[in-house]
Amino acid sequence: MKLLIVEDQAKTGQYLRQGLTEAGFNTELVADGNSGQQLALSGDYALLILDVMLPGRSGWQILQAVRSAGLDTPVLFLTAKDAVEDRVHGLELGADDYLVKPFAFSELLARVRSLLRRGSATPQETSLQLADLRLDLIRRRVERSGQRIDLTAKEFALLEMLLRRQGEVLPKSLIASQVWDMNFDSDTNVIEVAIRRLRLKIDDEFPNKLIHTVRGMGYVLEERSV
Amino acid sequence: MRRLSLSSRLALLFAACTAVVSLFAGVLFNRASEAHFIELDQQQLDGKLIGLRRALQDVQPAQREARLADELSRQADLSLRITGADGQRWYDSSTQTPKDLPPQIGLSTISTDGTDYRVLNAPLYPDKSDSPHLSLLLDITHHQHFLQRMQHLIWLTVGLSALATALLGAWAARSGLRPLRRMSAVARGISAQSLNARLPEAQMPPELAEMAHSFNAMLGRLDDSFQRLSAFSADIAHELRTPLSNLLTHTQVTLTRPRPIEDYREALHSNLEELQWMAQLVNDMLYLAKADHGLLMPKREPLELADETDVLLEFFAPLAEDAGVTLTREGNARIEGDRNMLRRALSNLLDNALRFTPAAGSVSLRIAELPGAVRVSVENTGDGISAELLPRLFDRFYRADPARQEGSSEHAGLGLAITQSIVRAHGGQIRCESEAGWTRFVIELPRS
Q: Which end of chain A is more exposed for a tag (fewer CB within 10 A), N or C?
């Protein structure tokens, strides 16, 4: 899975490459628009991460070139400007997602994973599982160690998201957006409370905890050796 | 084109008015004196005619000429011509009179070779159809000269009085407009440092008092906005100073000596929290700046408010349950607006309400239709907010709770300001009402 980052700010580019590489992606970084476009047009990449303002050639021009070459590589834009027209312009040109600086890396990582997953249609699952936790999508039931657990609709949706993306750190903003359709930055601690209540139901009585807090980044569902 | 000053304009108008009035009066006087002269001439000529007729009837034909000469000699400006019924000139008292006279019976005025005559034509014997004609000619040149002089005088008066009123008017306008000049002097003297200058409204004439009042009110608003803006910039610096100093101190202390790996991890985590708080602050401020520049352009989606708010209630349900607060909604209305923006606005209000509601209290969201508008209110039980704090609630960085004054608290104090910006971007209004025991935020949005 090869990713291309075109970002002229050296520090931003390096940190992005490091973060994405450590998250298991094969990442390439270039700092100017022209070489960025050249590489993007090779068609070797599963995802392009483009800054809008670049020396030589803007991110939008690269996107246009890529789309007119018939490539449907997903494109994620990074920008310091948050003008509505910019966003609309980007989406009109065929961008797939849009992140405004300052953004959190966990947010970027989650979005990159969403974009990459979008292409590969996963076979219809009927149940999701991690360790002794089982979620039955058809009967909408949750069991842990054979013990039935009652969840509210939103708790079920939250657990389903965590299970589908197990091992991934999910930022609070992404959870708010996917589970509750709240698409804005909010400093409310609703998500913390919701996670705490979910924990109470599925983790508290069991020695093997599955929901973990990654401080300052979000939550992850995974089995950790005690 | 150069625009005329108000005083010049007024002076010119005064002058024009005076000119029109004096011209009118002059023309009227001229007409009246002319009519008066005609009347005098008529009387004189009529009297003369009677005398002449009598003279011609009573006297023997041989003596007629002498009698006529005698009759006419008494008045030098009068001459007589007698014309037979066949048009032949029978008698002419003077050779200098004009040859052709107007044929009609009665009074007329003619002018030849610089001399003006009033001519009275009448038959000698009014009861005979073939009577010879008498034509009496009165030299009225001196009358006409007088009238002409009058006309010149009128024009002179018109011109001079117009000039005089123009000058006097200009002076009057200038002194009448002195309050305006004072106003402009005050306006000239105003800069960012002296926004507290005001016009003396009580000393203004009534016509200007209202303008002075508006002007003062404008200065007041500018002053207020400027103060807020200055305070905002100062607040930004202040808000950022605390997390920045935390970051600096913590990072430097961590780096002063080697530590176990766990300590570094802890330091980075702590820094991350500060940084996230700062990022949120910057994002919120950018959002507000966008709103200030009128760049917050809400979409116009048809929204069912009950559905929208139920989604929010569901979102906040865990928080409410945790706090032991009941969260309810009643009413419904349809509106056109931006779903995400309105959710954000209401979520700030709900979050705020839940934070200040004591356990076993309640937060109720009510939707009501008003004529032409929709009202959404969020009310919570708990200690009220004192009246003097209400207008400041929507100020940026304002926190009603003094315990949260310092930066690096969880909430930056921009939530209500953002809600207000969103409501305003939708053309609506927000206010807060509070009494002992409850606090209510009321949003009113235009329906379309």
A: C
Do A98 and A79 contact (CB within 8 A), yes or no? yes
The per-residue pLDDT of chain A, averaged, comes to 87
Considering only CB atoms, A181 lies closest to which of B282, B311, B319, namely B311
Largest CA distance in chain A: 61
Q: What is the pLDDT of residue B406?
A: 45
Q: Does B276 touch chain A (CB under 8 A)?
A: yes
Q: What pLDDT does B194 receive?
A: 76
B123: pLDDT strictly greater than 50: yes
Sheet holding B326-330, edge to edge: B326-330, B362-370, B373-381, B438-446, B429-435
Report the Cα–Cα distance between both ends of chain A, in Å, rounded. Answer: 32
| Chain B residues touching A104 at Cβ < 8 A | 276, 279
Least confident of A9-23, A174-188, B299-313: A174-188
A222: left (phi over 0), alpha (psi -120 to 50) or beta: beta
Axis crossing angle, helix A59-68 with helix A33-41, rounded to the nearest 10:
20
Range list of β-strands (E), chain A? 2-6, 26-30, 47-51, 75-79, 97-100, 127-130, 133-136, 141-144, 147-149, 211-214, 218-221
From chain A, the residues in CB contact with B311 under 8 A are 180-181
- Model confidence pLDDT, tens digit, residues B29-86: 888 988 988 898 889 888 888 888 887 777 676 777 777 777 777 777 888 888 877 7
Cα angle value B167/B169/B175 (rounded, 5°): 110
SS3 content of chain A, % helix, strand, coil (to 5): 40, 20, 40
Interface contact flag, B322 A180, Cβ < 8 Å: no
Helix (H, G, I), strand (E, B) or coil at A102: coil
Count other Cβ atoms within 10 Å, centred on residue B127.
Answer: 6
Nearest CA among A6, A99, A112, A5 for reference residue A58: A6
The answer to whether residue B283 neighbours chain A at the CB level (below 8 Å) is yes
